[in-house]
Design brief:
single chain; about 400 residues; mainly beta; Immunoglobulin-like; OB fold (Dihydrolipoamide Acetyltransferase, E2P); 5-stranded mixed beta sheet; 2 helices; 27 strands; about 5% helix
Length: about 400
């Protein structure tokens, strides 16, 4: 197992400098934390849990205390980090120490070697300088490079044409001996145009010390039915590079709700002969239920259909549901209590041709989620208008099937 005790010196010096800069003197606590990184080395997951300790020592002249501790696991490919015990409540006098044990619980189903890697943090809040610390927790796979990205490959397996899909990527320096400089990010491959990098932070080039990271958003915007591929290229100092595989598969089929949905697109509020006015915020809604009726019409573009979405007793086949014109109704004892569940008649304005096809494909008894922007009014250039009287006109941005 690798030892990391030498790296605690960095935190001791930083704490002393911070105290001096804040006017510290006699009567002030100063906490020394060692080591500066808990390095569990290369583990065999079959070996079970392992624990290491962070030692907190008061080297100041006054009392000091660990106020709060928290552990997070950023890369859990091989297991998770846990606190073995809460910090002591009592204050530490000059020269006194306390140990904070951190445990790594490996996943026994993960193979040893390259696949067993993990990254986490121990966050400390102290009532004396340096007040707050974040210490990296590392399990190293045999193949680990200095820079590890989460995720280390990105796939969008069930994307829908004309929607933007987003994935947050974070790349950490796990090398306790060497700083890593990320000079540039780019997309390579024949399908590079459908993948985009946004908002890298910090600005590049960036020098990453141990546990520090560069993050960015990856967007996938397919415009046609196809399989897409490419690579994210991270150019590093010294001519080195790191590549992350990209893949996406896009179509128009009505999706399953368990697959989630992408970022909500901005609604198109003006079209040929009409202007849409949205309800005051919040105006984005999702209705989950059973389709009890649908009625399609073409006399009021951009409106194309009424879709009655119900839940609770109104979704029971014993509840008698009907529709007349743009109004839906229910009757019978099976529909009670009347205030339970949904009874939402959605007047649908599809966001795109894809959503138009989804709405038209709906059948009675489909279990769906209908999502979109609530509309207050549609003003027609002819002088007329459409306004709800108890129903829900929506710019529908998403329709998906809910499994039972």
């Amino acid at each position: 197992m690798n030892s990391a005790s030498a790296f605690g010196l960095v935190l001791v010096l930083a704490a002393a400098q911070l105290l001096a800069g804040c006017g510290g003197g006699e009567g002030h606590g100063l906490l020394e934390v060692t080591p500066g990184v808990l390095d569990f080395g290369d583990l065999d997951p079959a070996g079970g849990s392992q624990a290491l300790e962070i030692l907190v020592t008061n080297v100041g002249d006054g009392p000091a205390r660990v106020v709060r501790t928290a552990v997070s696991t950023e890369d859990g490919a091989c297991g998770t980090f846990e606190l073995d015990a809460a910090p002591p409540r009592q204050a530490l006098g000059r020269g006194e120490s306390t140990a904070i044990p951190v445990r790594f619980d490996p996943d026994p189903d993960v193979a040893p070697g390259c696949d067993c890697h993990a990254l986490g943090y121990l966050d400390l809040m102290l009532d004396a300088a340096p007040h707050r610390l974040r210490l990296p927790l590392v399990v190293r796979g045999d193949c680990d490079a200095a820079l590890r990205c989460l995720p280390n490959g990105i796939e969008f397996p069930a994307a829908i044409i004309e929607y933007v899909y987003e994935e947050q990527v974070q790349c950490y320096n796990l090398d306790p001996e060497t700083a890593v400089t990320v000079e540039q990010l780019s997309i390579d491959g024949d399908d590079a145009g459908v993948f985009q990098i946004h908002d890298p932070s910090p600005d590049l080039p960036a020098v990453l010390e141990l546990g520090e990271s560069v993050s960015f958003e990856l967007h996938y915007l397919p415009l046609e039915e196809a399989e897409h591929g490419g690579e994210i290229r991270l150019a590093l100092a010294g001519g080195e590079e790191l590549r992350l595989a990209l893949a996406g598969s896009a179509g128009r089929e009505r999706p399953l709700c368990v697959q989630g949905w992408p970022a909500d697109p901005a609604p198109q509020l003006e079209g040929e002969g009409y202007t849409i006015v949205l309800e005051a915020e919040p105006n984005l809604s999702s209705y989950v239920g059973v389709v009890r009726s649908r009625w399609f019409y073409g006399d009021l573009p951009p409106l194309i259909a009424d879709v009655l979405v119900t839940s609770g007793p109104k979704a029971d086949p014993a509840c008698n549901v009907g529709q007349s014109g743009h109004q839906a109704h229910w009757e019978g004892a099976a529909c009670l209590p009347k205030d339970e569940g949904l009874f939402i008649n959605v007047h649908a304005v599809p966001h795109s041709e894809t959503v138009d096809a989804w709405v038209r494909s709906l059948e009675v008894w489909d279990r769906v989620t209908v999502r979109g922007y609530e509309v207050a009014r549609i003003n027609f250039d002819s002088g007329g208008y459409w306004q709800d009287a108890g129903c829900h006109t929506m710019v529908v941005t998403w329709v998906c099937d809910d499994e039972e």
